Amino acid sequence: MRCEDCPRFDAERETCKDGKLNPRTWENAVEAVQMFGPRSICMMNDHRERIIDVFNGATLEGKAPRHSSPVRLRSVTDAFNRERRR
User: Which of 34, 47, 70, 75 would give a disulfide with 29, using CB separation of 3.0 to 4.6 Å?
Assistant: First the structure.
């Protein structure tokens, strides 16, 4: 979703009212998660579900098994690098 179409977008300030990020590409989404964590990504972002699955330990091909404890953030980077090598 474009930020300008979202009800949480402040047109006057040209920012999200919740302070969320809306990266346009997968690479930017991975970088944002590495820097700010998965909660920084907007709920309406196209990459959010995939980022959350990878953050929780999924391979990029399938869904994440649900863990009781979070997996280290490095797993997002590792999964991203595996995909880039293909």
Answer: 47
